[in-house]
Amino acid sequence: MKSTSLRKNIMVALLAAIAFIIMFLQFPLPLFPTFLTIDLSDVPAIIGAIVYGPAAGIIIEAIKNLLHWLTSGSVTGVPIGEFANFLTGTVYILVSTWLFRKRKTFSSLISGMVAGTIVTAIVMSIANYFVIFPSYAYFLGFPIDAAVKMAQAANHSINDLFSLVVLGVLPFNIIKCIIISIIAIPIYARVRPRMNLNI
């Protein structure tokens, strides 16, 4: 029993370290504001959550973001970006694994990731509108209009915070979660023979 727990802790720590490294590999998407960048650090977290449960995935999310903040700092002095990353990954993990762990089948994994994508996109849109963008504006001391103007360079239909969230943040998080799902599924398929799961 102790060896199983130790192995789990080691694997969670390893996945967190991998996620932390991957977090530095960010890239923008065409037609989206340049401050919205995708990193694939949620992939190790969702793998950990599927294998060891949602708590493990959330721990991986917390460790990678804490390490990122400690090593990279923040232009605002507070880890707003890391909080947003943590919230995105946590919501996606909780919804995706909740459905998966009820049946532990391939179809439930797909259903969970689809539901996780939808819920994450909605939750992060609300969080960005009411918390994240206002927090950046407060701590950086510049109006939200500045972010809107930056976003207009990528999409001329963006003219206020609401349109920025609807036309920028919402589709961005949908695409991000889809990419993470597409990458995570075959990775998990490679490790599933070592586990007693019906998938």
| Largest sheet strand order | 1-2
User: How far apart are the first and last residues' alpha carbons, in Å?
Assistant: 25 Å
Kindly provide the radius of gyration, computed on alpha-carbon positions and rounded to a whole number of angstroms: 18 Å
Beta-strand fraction estimate? under 5%
**Main β-sheet, in a few words?**
2 strands, antiparallel
Instruction: Tell me, briefly, the overall form.
Output: globular
If helices are DSSP runs of H or I spanning 4 or more residues, what is the number of helices? 7
- Extract low-pLDDT stretches: none
Count of beta strands: 2
Helix content: over 70%
Structural class computed from helices and strand pairing: mainly alpha
Average residue pLDDT: 89
Order of helices and strands: HEEHHHHHH
CATH architecture field of the domain at 41-140 and 173-194: Orthogonal Bundle
Q: Under CATH, the topology of the domain at 41-140 and 173-194 is which? A: Arp2/3 complex 21 kDa subunit ARPC3
Which CATH class of the domain at 41-140 and 173-194 is shown?
Answer: Mainly Alpha
Which features characterize this protein?
7 helices, two-stranded antiparallel ribbon, 199 residues, 75% helix, Arp2/3 complex 21 kDa subunit ARPC3, mainly alpha
Q: What would you say this structure looks like, in words?
A:
This protein has 199 residues and is an all-alpha fold. It has a domain at 41-140 and 173-194: Arp2/3 complex 21 kDa subunit ARPC3. The protein contains seven helices and two strands; from the N terminus they run αββαααααα. A two-stranded antiparallel ribbon has the order 1-2. The chain is globular and about 55 Å long. The chain starts with a helix and ends in an 8-residue tail after the last helix. The model has no long low-confidence stretch (mean pLDDT 89).
